[in-house]
Amino acid sequence: MPTDRRLYVGPSLRRLRRDLGLTQADMASDLEVSASYIALLERNHRPLSAEVLLRLAQTYKMDMAALAAGGGAEETARLQAVLKDPMFADIDLPSLETADVTTNFPGVTEALLRLYTAYKEEQLALADRGAESGPAGTAGGLDASDPIAESRRFLEARRNCFPSLDDPAERLAQTVADHDSLTGYFRARHNLRVRRMPPEVMVGSIRRLDRHRREILLSDELDHASQTFQLALQLAYLELDADIAAVVAEGSFTESGERLTRRALASYAAAALLMPYSAFARAVEARRYDLEALARQFGASFEQVAHRLTTLQKPGQERVPFFFIRVDEAGNVSKRLDGAGFPFARHGGGCPLWNVHAAFRTPRLIVTQWLELPDGQRFFSVARTVTAGGGGFGKVRVERAIALGCAAEHAGRLIYTDGQPGPETATPIGVTCRICHRTECTARSAPPIGRQILPDDIRRTSAPFGFSDS
Q1: Distance CA 110, CA 95 (A)
Q2: List of long-range contacts for 396-399, beta carbons under 8 Å, 24+ apart
Q3: The predicted structure's pLDDT at residue 72
Q4: Are residues 306 and 325 in the same domain?
Q5: pLDDT for res 370
Q6: What average pLDDT values come out for the chain (470 residues) when binned by 10 residues?
Q7: By the 8 A CB rule, do 156 and 338 touch?
Q8: pLDDT value at position 88?
Q9: In this predicted structure, what is the pLDDT of residue 410?
Q10: Are 185 and 296 contained in the same domain?
């Protein structure tokens, strides 16, 4: 007896329609069906017939297998990831039930995903506001509308992963590959010539689009990886601007916060052009997350590869989740990306025992370290310095250190753990001194909140502060 294999593709069909910019009535007209039928299909109240599937493929020039394979798999993966949040830990949520929800109630699924994303943004905003308040709740530190904090919250709430940018960037990368280079593609597609110019001509810029002369000007002080990235960034602004704008529209920003977020997403799209998701995801497993090897394979810099590794959480194609931080020698954080649940200090300095600060002692060499937080969580960290600026004798160079890390359970997939001591050698660190209660730490710069400091007129402890037991 034949098995009933009805095809329900509601979420995939809705995503296809939105990507094409169509209303339900538009699609119904194209497929010669009723708008109500399209609505039923999108809600998974009706299975997709073979006839309509064929019309979809012919009308929109798409692969039937791509739609047929969708079936809400991406939404199921996203919802399952959300339901792993610790606040749901005491609820029995079988994966089969999750699949049933996404299959039978796609609208409810989308609503839950939107609510969770909004919840994460507000949770991060609350953490920022708490960090900005003084001991008595009085305002201190940063303004609540800090545009950098706005942008970070937006990225962190989405785990710095944007499949809606990865997919069009990957398709564009395939088109670019048909030409000899990005330079050739600009010439053929946009009638733009790429020229490398000395700094006196660039007048403080490293990239400039001259529409009048039909030229893209690049500073000749940039290294090859940086020049390539700037070309990819310009292409993202030219051809992926609508996709970037659609992602930005999901958030609520001040004007400066919106501009910072748009810039971050354009850089994300540029990285996705140079390191397309599918190819890069395969390569990281084959190379076991060897950053230097991946940089050479994709013609990118060490830092660009480290950035890209934080983005590999596309539902159904996840790789090791990483966090990323970049600091200067004074400890100032200039970039922070979290895809691994690492509790970064919201404001103020980090722990000096973390090797990202020690990396300056051995420039350009990779240093590794096991880390253990006060709550017992363990992470593995890979740190190295990177250089910005320079490009000529006497030119200002800025040395920064970057650290890329993952939770201990994933560390065995990294080449850097081969032949190294295990997590039992982890260095005890804190998030920041003000909330770290390791009382014996000799590297402490400030007492933790809520601890009574002992006088030192009779006894001076080896640690910077002594604390009463109460």
Answers
A1: 17
A2: 398/328, 399/328, 399/329, 399/360, 399/363
A3: 62
A4: no
A5: 95
A6: 62 78 87 91 85 87 65 73 77 80 77 80 61 44 68 88 94 93 95 93 90 94 94 97 94 91 96 96 97 96 95 90 91 81 66 89 94 88 91 85 94 95 90 73 75 73 68
A7: yes
A8: 79
A9: 94
A10: yes
Q: State the Cα–Cα distance between residues 107 and 33, nearest whole angstrom.
A: 22
Q: Which of 301, 318, 335 is the last residue of a domain?
A: 318
150 inside domain: no
Residue 442 shares a structural domain with residue 415: no
Sign, CA torsion 221/226/228/229: negative
d(CA 375, CA 324): 21
Return phi, psi of residue 405, to 5°. -145, 165
309 & 247 share domain: yes
Smallest CA-to-CA distance from 153 within 179, 178, 186, 129 is with: 129
How far apart CA 346 and CA 357 sit, in angstroms, is 18
Is the pTM above the cut of 0.85? Answer: no
What pLDDT score does 142 carry?
45
Q: What's the CATH number where 344 sits? A: 3.30.450
Torsional sign, CA 202, 203, 206, 207: negative
Residues with Cβ within 8 Å of residue 36, at least 6 apart in sequence: none
Domain that holds residue 366: 320-431
Give yes or no: residues 201 and 261 share one domain. Answer: yes
Phi, psi of 381 (to 5 degrees): -120, 135
Let me know whether 52 and 33 are in one domain: yes
- Total domains present in the chain: 4
Domain end (from 51, 71, 91): 71
